[in-house]
Amino acid sequence: MANVEKFSFHVPSLEELGGVLQNGLKNNFADVQVSVVDCPDLTKEPYTFPVKGICGKTRIAEVGGVPYLMPLVNRKKVYDMNVVAKEIELPGAFILGAGAAPFQTLGINAEFQKLTGHKFSYEWIQGPISAISILYLQIFMPVVQTKSDHKPAVNGSYFAQINPADGGCLLEKYSKKYSDFGFALLANLFASEGKPGKVIEVKAKGRTGKHNFVTCMRETLEKHYGDKPVGMGGTFVVQKGKVKIHIMPPEFSTCPLTSDEDVNNWLHFFEVNAPLVCQPVFVSRDPGFDLRLEHTHCFSHHGEGGHYHYDTTPDTVEYLGYFLPAEVLYRIDKPKETHTFGRD
Predict the structure, then answer these.
(1) 150-153: long-range contacts at Cβ-Cβ below 8 A with a sequence spacing of 24 or more?
(2) What was the pLDDT predicted at 116?
(3) How far apart are CA 83 and CA 86, in angstroms?
(4) How far apart are CA 81 and CA 65, in angstroms?
(5) What are the structural domains of the chain?
(6) 100-149, pLDDT tens digit by residue?
(7) What angle do CA 82, 85, 86 make, to 5 degrees?
(8) Which residue has the higher pLDDT, 256 or 278?
(9) With contact defined as beta carbons under 8 Å apart, do 57 and 66 qualify?
């Protein structure tokens, strides 16, 4: 079992959180409506999740971290959603969020002769030189109902990669190709019993400020609650407009990435179209666990998805989201050596 640290979040009432978010978001959007409602049936479109809600014993888990990806990748860092569910003391949990796809599953083998002319870092190439494993990296959108004593696991996840045919964005349903529940390197996860119940509904239109939707909510919570960390997760839909996303290149960087500039030069950026289903995990303030404060991945039913940065059509963008505060943080396999770049 990986090293697991546990922390209890400050958990305000939904009504209080709704008022705080209403006041904060109105400084960043022209039209804001925040209220407490019954969670919609998330098995229906556009969500198509394997459970109806996001309620019940809410948790946030941060697994691994960016230091396992850069400066150079640590290929030993592989994980399993069903194991994570046990580590957060919630077997059978519904888990959604943002992470790196399981290169241990998606990787392919190539003969050494085919690698002539490529530079590869021996930080991650191991094994016989005649059969080097090239590890491919994809953006991962975990949507998993983990296994319990009564039910098998259901994997509704997506992954996005560079389309080898045209260099564009290629989004695929994970279960159509693979049957495992793995991921690698890092993930920011929101977990619950997946039950119906009361949630915070946020509607926001017309971005007038500089912050993206998630950053605005997170910084609003940080400003209001100060040194009382609040964690939140859930799902939101970009109903109208366009969004800037990134997808990682098909191969790990063979040169050390040591700054945000290096990272941005390595990533591939795209502008994609609504509707997009997004899976945010955010924490108002790091209580000392080397957290990535916010992380959001998105998928669609029209073949686009990736890591959400911000909308590119502020005048016309429309967001609709459903969120809950997390009761507990679980920090799993925290890197011993860390840095602050690559966390945008």
Answers:
(1) 150/92, 151/92, 153/81, 153/82, 153/181
(2) 31
(3) 5
(4) 16
(5) 4-332 (3.30.1330.80)
(6) 887 766 553 222 223 333 333 323 333 332 333 444 567 899 999 999 98
(7) 95
(8) 278
(9) no
